[in-house]
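Quick one:
INPUT:
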């Protein structure tokens, strides 16, 4: 994989953390101990998107991280082994699993902490007449993949897949880009779509009405680069139906929260966010629409950030 690298340096030009992917890859190729700067990667995949040779740089960095034992990584491992989730659950949903072709998978942050997002998604699915089930969720494995624990990540994913099989599920609807990306990359049994793509396919636009507020949009890295850039066009089209949409400069630039960086080094995460926060302040929108729970937490420190599912559900008068 790293042998395909031609050392053009494009990856270093686009990295929000100003890493040197070339140095990291060369160091790995020389079989030296991984360099600590591998911890600073947000796994935004900007380097992979820019690489002319298709080198899987992010995956190489994730593999290096298994070498490091940091407090942040230890917290992730402890939470998953103790609670089956990457965070300490603040109240656990009580799903009522039933045989169904569609399942909604909320993910750790949305399911156990930001439950207003999962409530908005489920109410909107009901509004659109979509029958769905929910399982007793365990972490999908995304946070574990980010720290190089691919073995444990697969175990966690399999606990969810087993439940989907038993219920006859064919399609999994997600609201977390990390979950979406993981379910698309690490299994092939089930169709997977983020709720935005489902809203688009069910043509939710006609049910939306214009309201007097200005909104901008943050592109989640895993949704924009790992899944599909079209999904963010869907998000923009939905916003244009509901309000005055003002594009954010460098909307695709990482907010700094991903790849375990926020948990491992909150100072770095906030430093990486500064440029994004400054851009938002210049626009002065009433709300920053997001489609990622991690982006929501990160950007809420500097602005009013709302998941797009909440804005849609509120527009449809499904929630207050």
């Amino acid at each position: 994989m790293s042998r395909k690298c031609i050392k053009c340096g494009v990856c270093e030009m686009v990295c929000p953390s100003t890493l040197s992917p070339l140095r990291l890859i060369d160091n790995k190729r020389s079989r030296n101990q991984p360099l600590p700067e591998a911890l600073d990667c947000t796994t935004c995949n900007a380097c992979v998107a820019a690489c002319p040779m298709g080198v899987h740089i992010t995956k190489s960095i994730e593999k290096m991280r298994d070498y490091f034992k940091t407090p942040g990584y230890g917290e992730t491992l402890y939470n998953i082994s103790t609670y089956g989730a990457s965070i300490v659950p603040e109240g656990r949903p009580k799903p009522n699993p039933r045989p169904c072709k569609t399942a909604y998978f909320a993910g750790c942050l949305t399911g156990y902490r930001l439950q207003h997002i999962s409530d908005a998604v489920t109410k909107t699915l009901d509004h659109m007449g979509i029958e769905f089930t929910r399982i007793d969720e365990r972490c999908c494995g995304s946070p574990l993949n980010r720290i190089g624990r691919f073995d444990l990540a697969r175990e966690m994913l399999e606990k969810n897949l087993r439940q989907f099989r038993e219920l006859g599920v064919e399609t999994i609807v997600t609201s977390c880009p990390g979950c979406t990306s993981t379910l698309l990359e690490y299994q092939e049994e089930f169709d997977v779509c983020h709720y935005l793509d489902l809203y688009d396919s069910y043509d939710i636009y006609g049910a939306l009405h214009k309201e007097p507020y200005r909104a901008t949009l943050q592109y989640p890295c895993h949704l924009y680069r790992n899944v599909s850039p079209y999904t963010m066009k869907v998000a923009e089209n939905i916003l244009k139906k509901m309000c005055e949409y003002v594009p954010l400069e460098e909307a695709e630039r990482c907010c700094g929260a991903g790849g375990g960086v926020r948990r491992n080094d909150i100072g770095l995460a906030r430093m990486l966010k500064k440029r994004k926060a400054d851009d938002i302040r210049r626009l002065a929108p009433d709300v920053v629409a997001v489609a990622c729970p991690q982006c929501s937490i990160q950007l809420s420190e500097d602005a009013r950030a709302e998941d797009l599912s909440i804005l849609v559900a509120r527009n449809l008068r499904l929630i207050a």
